[in-house]
Write a structure and sequence with these properties.
Helix content is about 45%, strand content about 15%. By secondary structure, the chain is of the alpha/beta class. Strands 1-2-4-3-5-8-6-7 form an 8-stranded mixed beta sheet, with helices on both faces. Bound molecules: zinc ion.
């Protein structure tokens, strides 16, 4: 059986089946437009807890779901062996953005990038980085995509004119000014954000030691991964990550020398603040697919198709197919390699969690 699924409903069926086979308890919670998020958990709530979330960026759940199903399948396989999972609790949250998962979008039903939508400060839901404002015309043409548009040439000209760092900044920071634009962070916590805010306590339970892996795709080299952290390089909280995943696999979302306009609204930052009374080791596991110009092109075209093309038209479907390919490539070697790496990351996180729990009780 392949762990990858063809649709949101196919993925849910496989996930629930795999969870039932290992005796996990499964809860399904309606989040937006009647679409549900499934949560599988195994183990007592006071044990050190490993949380694995997928699909905060809708379409990225096609990969994250496969990782979660593969994790459950390997637990099933190892059920009769002596596995370390018995000493820790495992919580798998399947498809945090069910609308984006079901409709093949990165964003939710209000065009919101959920990883820019978690409340951080009162000024947060306003404005856009200067770089984004300058690039808005290029990023968000108010028309349906066209096969004949010389997108790559336009992208190259934009990069020559503004520089790649400006493009990176516009993307990394998100924006709160153009509701139909890409990387829009909304004006208040969205339905899926509120779902995380109100349910995270159940996932964390009474554990004092928590590791959280949030699965993402689309950034980095094809088939490779980075463990992205919210802390700045060298921060105190990072020794666990460095020991657990290896210094070389770490990547930094907040590198103050490089970003003038701080990233805001990230889920991990919100969770770390919410659970600052415990050790909450949060990491985004980001798996690379294609080059950034292609990725931006796919996000841009799908966004234009969503707002300006007829649903079900050729133009619309082509944009969806390219978005899916960009965030979950069909390439067998990519799928095999990334699944293997993701399983390794999850195993390392579990061992790191158990090790730090033992050290704390010594
Ligand atoms: Zn993502």
């Amino acid at each position: 059986m392949t762990f990858f699924s063809a649709s949101y409903s196919d993925a849910r069926a496989k996930f629930k089946l795999a969870a039932n086979r290992v005796g996990a308890s499964v809860e399904s919670v309606p989040v937006s437009q009647g679409l549900e998020v499934d949560i599988a958990s195994l183990g007592e709530p006071d044990l050190p807890t490993l949380i694995v979330t997928s699909g905060l960026h809708g379409v990225e759940a096609f990969f994250g779901s496969a990782v979660q199903i593969a994790t459950l399948a390997s637990l099933h396989q190892a059920a009769n062996e002596n596995t370390a999972f018995g000493d820790c609790r495992l919580v798998l949250v399947h498809g945090l953005n069910p609308y984006g998962f079901a409709h093949i979008r990165r964003v939710d039903e209000n065009n919101i990038d959920l990883n820019r939508n978690f409340p951080e400060s009162e000024q947060q839901y306003q404005g856009a980085a200067a770089a984004y404002k300058a690039l808005n015309g290029f990023l968000n043409p108010p028309s349906q995509p066209s096969r004949f548009e010389p997108y790559k040439l336009k992208a190259a000209a934009t990069i020559v004119r503004y520089g790649l760092p400006a493009l990176r900044e516009a993307i990394a920071c998100g924006q709160y000014q153009y509701p139909k634009g890409i990387f829009y962070g909304g004006i208040e916590p969205s339905t899926a954000t509120r779902f995380v805010m109100s349910h995270c306590e159940n996932w964390v339970g009474s554990a004092s030691n928590v590791a959280h892996i949030d699965l993402h795709t689309g950034l980095g080299e094809f088939g490779r991964y980075k463990i992205l952290v919210n802390e700045e390089p060298g921060a105190d909280g990072l020794s666990w990550h460095a020991k657990t995943f290896g210094e070389r696999s770490l990547g930094y979302l907040r590198n103050n020398d490089k970003t003038a306009y701080a990233v805001s609204g990230a889920m991990g930052v919100w969770l770390q603040n919410r659970f600052n009374d415990r050790r909450y080791h949060f990491a985004g596991a980001e798996f690379g697919t294609y080059d950034p110009v292609r990725i931006i092109g796919a996000i841009r075209a799908e966004n234009r198709a969503h707002h300006y093309a007829v649903a079900g038209s050729k133009i619309h479907d082509r944009a969806k197919a390219e978005l899916l390919e960009c965030f979950c490539p069909a390439n067998e070697a990519w799928r095999e390699q990334t699944l293997m790496s993701a399983k390794k990351i999850i195993t390392s996180a579990m061992h790191g969690l158990l090790k730090s729990s033992r050290e704390a009780t010594r």
